[in-house]
Design goal:
39% helix; 8-stranded parallel beta barrel; TIM Barrel; alpha/beta
Length: 333
């Protein structure tokens, strides 16, 4: 098993992550990822610290000294078609070349055009979860475009038949995000990440630097009214990683590069040790607000993966997650 760890972007955070990894012998940790320059491209999350090329080079060198690979996130779902202009082409090719000279190991992108463009560089091309790879057909398309790694849609994290088919269909690496807490089949997902992509970009001045997050508010509201939706999300418990290794998936990504480094390290520990005691919501990247409202006992989910592995995901005919939520969830007063 190998873990990819979120990194907020500033050098002290990287040093702290690696120091804990080495001090505690967390050998499963092999990769970190951080945002690139918002002046070149936005991403699916905000950027707390946007390192320039010289800092990316220095951090990459430090990571390599400790046996850690460095990946840069450029997974905006919308660039306003700038990437298809000659100026956009020149900018992205220049930036990829600079990342390559900085010895970066991989670049995470969602845009198919950039997947093809990255073929010209020796860095790994990592297809983002925001490319919504949810079938063997789509996986194959991206592999043929040039993908070295596919981060599959979290909506299929519990669709074991589909995951098995994807692993069988491609030769590239298949990666899962384990601690994203988004709604299963969320109706806001595409629009929400488009909003984040625009707000995190500095090369599209016609868009505001801040906007009310309608989608986040709706997301919270739905789960406050129906906490069963938390159980139905595609998160994966540390204890259940072995079920995915059994079908040929051995690399797992932790979400949360906009979070505090101490929280990132706590999650890194839990998934490295494949064990967690306490409120399951403490592990979930999004939305963290819920952990102050609900307590979900992780132990109550022991064995649930066996049901989810064969579940047809027709919730109106099942009711399993409803009963499980009643048993596992407590309202925090």
């Amino acid at each position: 098993m190998q873990l990819m760890i979120p990194h907020p972007g500033h050098f002290p955070a990287l040093k702290e992550i690696i120091e804990v990894k080495e001090a505690e012998g967390l050998n499963e940790v092999g990769e970190v990822f951080m945002g690139g320059s918002p002046e070149v491209m936005g991403s699916g999350r905000g950027v707390l610290h946007a390192p320039l090329i010289d800092e990316i080079k220095a951090q990459t060198e430090y990571a390599h000294q400790h046996g850690i690979k460095m990946h840069i996130v450029m997974n905006s779902t919308c660039t306003g078609a700038h990437h298809l202009t000659f100026e956009g082409y020149k900018m992205f090719k220049w930036y990829f070349n600079e990342l390559n000279k900085a010895d970066v190991d991989g670049v995470i992108v969602a845009e198919p055009y950039l997947v093809e463009l990255l073929r010209e560089f020796p860095m790994k091309t990592i297809v983002s979860v925001l490319s919504y790879v949810e079938s063997p057909q789509r996986a194959k398309f991206f592999e043929e475009l040039g993908a070295d790694v596919l981060t599959v849609d979290t909506n299929i994290n519990r669709h074991f038949d589909v995951l098995k088919a994807i692993v069988k269909a491609v030769n590239c690496e298949v990666k899962l995000i384990v601690n994203e807490g988004c709604l299963y089949r969320c109706p806001f997902r595409y629009s929400h990440y488009n909003l984040a992509s625009h707000l995190s970009s500095l090369n599209q001045p016609r868009f505001p630097l801040f906007a009310p997050d309608f989608y986040y508010d709706k997301c919270i509201n739905i789960r406050l009214r129906d906490p069963t939706q938390i159980t139905k999300s595609g998160w994966i418990r540390p204890e259940d990683l072995k079920e995915y290794e059994a079908i040929g998936i051995n690399t797992f990504k932790l979400s949360g590069r906009t979070k505090a480094v101490n929280w990132i390290i706590d999650c890194m520990r839990s998934y490295s040790h494949r064990s967690f005691k306490g409120n399951l919501l403490e592990l979930l990247d999004c939305p963290q607000l819920l952990r102050d409202m609900f307590y979900m006992d992780n132990d109550k989910f022991d064995g649930a993966i066996e049901h989810w592995k064969k579940c047809r995901k027709v919730c109106g005919e099942c009711g399993y997650c409803n009963e499980l939520t009643k048993e596992a969830l407590t309202i925090i007063k």
